[in-house]
Amino acid sequence: MNVQEISSKPVQNILQFSVPSIIAMVLTSVITVTDGFFIGNYISADGLAAVNLGLPIVYLFLATGLMVSVGGSAIAGVAMGTGDIRRGRNVFNQTMTVTFLASIIVGTLSFVFFEPMLRFLKAEGSVLVFAKEYFFIMLFEYPLMILNTSFGMFIRADGQPDTYMKINILNVALNILLDYVFVKLDFGIRGIAFASLLSALVASVLNVLYFAASSNQYKFGKFTFAAEDLRNMILNGSSEFIGEMSGCISMFCFNFVIMKYFGVDGVTAFTVVGYTMYVFSMIAIGFGQGICPLVSFVFGAKEYALAVKIRKITNVILAGTGLVFALVLLFGAEVYAGMFVKEDNVRNMICYGIRIFCGTFVISGYNVVGSMYFTSCTKAFESALISSLRGLVLLLAATFTFPALWGLTGLWLISPAVEALSACVTAYFCIREKVSAKVPEVK
């Protein structure tokens, strides 16, 4: 990477770094949606509800892993931008080691408290059985998922986004194939989990081989533990931690509220509608992760106006993508619902939810990019505040009030309202940065 090339072709560089990242993230979401398809069609709607009830565990893993890896990759990127290759490599090795150890700790805690959490949510009968069978295996897959995501950030920062994309394509293709094989062999929901575990293991091996033999800048090797770098990793990645932990807490509360007012059918409907937001979030995160190395590099080179320009272009692209996404879902809601469930009452809930929920897609990308942009600029406060508002404070307030006030309509209004209010805060920080002396107006 060099500043002149990025400045002369910003759109091309954004797409060059973002498209492979988007494909990788969307492929990751395809695994989840495919699992849902096979569970809904070959196992039962209760199986879908069981998977959704355990999703706070996924957010817990993501919170810990992304806090370290996003923070570490940003620090390493800034170091590379200033020409300090030795420090960049040291940060890489420390980041991956801390990520691995953190995943083991989180996995152990999740195993201990998993069943009490489900019982608190009133998961009973077949829902509880499905959840225990599925997540007992997935607790071994999630650490691999986090390591693969962390490796991907450094592969992109190494200037090889296509490599990470290819690894993810193989991961998804293998997962879908194994889903089909294990379902046909009548392995049930355990087979779906085993498919994810085996495909993640293959991807991990390929990622390790890349850094062992092919990496240009980041190499495996001994590192000097730097307490200051660890502190900065955690501080700089705190917005991602807050965002994902907020997701963990919010999903837990969401499930509690939905079970209280709408029962298992409500959880199933929310799961299916949630897949649409999950896929779009992966697109937004893919853009965010794609521009992270660009922004951190130009920010390290003190090209502040160029960093702002990259953010603005990305926001325009994402807004258009969100609009297209919303229109496709509006016109295809019935077909989409029928892909996952056969019960008429659940399908009607899904179609009704999509009509209200669609506004979220146009707004949410602005908040995701804003948060990751500020992380890349090592502005932890702004990023953390955006993440905590949209992922916890506003979300929890809406979760406990909207359904109580407006029933099912209130449930689907939660996300659009939260994203709209969060966007006001994101816009405030962006405007404040634009008029500051340090970051001049972009023409």
Q: Please give the radius of gyration in angstroms.
A: 21 Å
Question: What fraction strand?
Answer: under 5%
Mean of all residue-level pLDDT scores: 86
N/C terminus separation: 23 Å
The total strand number stands at 0
Please summarize the sheet with the most strands: none
- C-alpha geometry: globular
What is the structural class? mainly alpha
Q: Count of DSSP helices?
A: 16
Share in helix: over 70%
Give unreliable regions as ranges. 439-443
Provide the succession of SSEs.
HHHHHHHHHHHHHHHH
Give me some keywords for this one.
disordered C terminus, mainly alpha, 443 residues
Could you characterize what this model shows?
With 443 residues, this protein is mainly alpha-helical. Helices cover 88% and strands 0% of the residues. It has 16 helices and no strands. It has helices at 3-8, 10-42, 45-53, 55-81, 85-120, 125-157, 161-184, 188-213, 227-236, 238-261, 263-300, 304-331, 333-340, 344-357, 359-376, 380-434. It starts with a helix and ends in a 9-residue tail after the last helix. The model is unreliable at 439-443 (pLDDT under 50).
